[in-house]
Structure formats: structure tokens, C-alpha cells
Design brief:
The chain contains 3 helices and 7 strands; from the N terminus they run βαββαβββαβ. The protein has about 170 residues and is an alpha+beta fold. It has a 5-stranded antiparallel beta sheet. A two-stranded parallel ribbon has the order 4-7.
Length: about 170
């Protein structure tokens, strides 16, 4: 039988992995969360700032209330494998959106293989967001001759599920 050829530009790939921790207040807890992300990823986290004023919580625009780290390439893939082991290789269908993104949460960082409890940091959880794109999507972000991405170049929910199953052996439940 003849093997079906797949266009290399139509194969989805993992573009980036973003780990986010929303603390909600500046201070010692935010510093501890920053230290946790540094230990988890060996990268320097970036502080995220509030965009809106929420007087009941004492939040104003520009106040640092969270930290995040973005990983790409092999580092991102290796971290995803470690984090998916916490979920035992199973995600729900609601963890996928219609744009090829996958998100899930880790309730306690001590569940991640290789991480030990640190009493100076305390107990935190975090969110993981995976962005899956096809090659050629750059045309929508470049500075010169910007163009819209065609329907076939966008990653659908079904393609994202198939990519996760093929790349990371993830089972998707309803």
C-alpha cells in the first residue's frame, strides 16, 4: 500500500508552554511563588500586573499580583511530560479550546516528580497552558505584509486532541 504523505506545514506543533500563578496580592506570598516557579523551570519568572481596580480586594492597576514563565522547544516538551504525569496522562475534553490551546491545573506543586516540599515557600498550585500552532501562523503577527491565517492553518479542537495523544500519549475523557 502507498503511504499517505502529510504536508509538513499542516502538522501541529507545540509552540509554547506557559505556567501561571495568580496570587492576588504583592508581598511575601508573591516572592514565594516566584521562587517556586524558578525551582520548577530553572527560568526567571515574570511578574504579572493587575489591569483593573477591584477595591474590595485592595487591587489597583499596575499592582503585581501574579507570576508566569514561558518555555519553548525541548525544555517546554520535557516539562509538559513531567506535568502530565501528575494528571496520569488523562485530560478532559473541556481542557481544550477551539483554537488549539490546552489548559489544566496542578493543585499542589509537590505532586510534580522531582519537587519536594519547601516550608519556606508553602503550598501552591498553578495553571499550565499549552499553545499548539501550525507552521506559517507567523504571517498574522509579523510587522510587514501581515495577512490573515487561513482556515486550514488554524488548529481545531480535534487536531489538538490528536496532537496530544500522538505526542504525549494523553487520553481525553468526556
Amino acid at each position: 500500500m502507498a503511504e499517505e504523505k502529510v504536508n509538513a506545514m499542516s502538522k501541529p506543533r507545540l509552540e509554547k508552554v506557559t505556567i501561571n500563578m495568580g496570587i492576588g496580592e504583592p508581598g511575601e506570598r508573591l516572592d514565594n511563588a516566584e521562587e517556586l516557579l524558578r525551582k520548577l523551570t530553572n527560568k526567571k519568572p515574570v511578574r504579572t500586573k493587575a489591569k483593573k481596580r477591584i477595591p474590595t480586594f485592595g487591587i489597583r492597576p499596575g499592582l503585581p499580583i501574579g507570576v508566569k514563565v514561558t518555555l519553548r522547544g525541548k525544555e517546554g516538551e520535557e516539562l509538559v511530560k513531567r506535568l502530565l504525569s501528575v494528571k496520569r496522562g488523562k485530560l478532559k475534553a473541556r481542557n481544550y479550546d477551539n483554537s488549539g490551546n490546552v489548559s489544566f491545573g496542578i493543585e499542589e506543586y509537590i505532586d510534580v516528580p522531582g519537587m519536594k516540599y519547601d516550608p519556606n515557600i508553602g503550598m501552591f498550585g498553578f495553571d499550565v497552558a499549552l499553545t499548539i500552532k501550525k507552521p506559517g501562523v507567523r504571517v498574522s503577527r509579523r510587522k510587514m505584509r501581515r495577512a490573515r491565517v487561513g482556515k486550514n492553518q488554524r488548529v481545531s479542537k480535534d487536531e489538538a486532541i490528536a496532537f496530544m495523544k500522538e505526542t504525549f500519549s494523553v487520553e481525553t475523557e468526556e
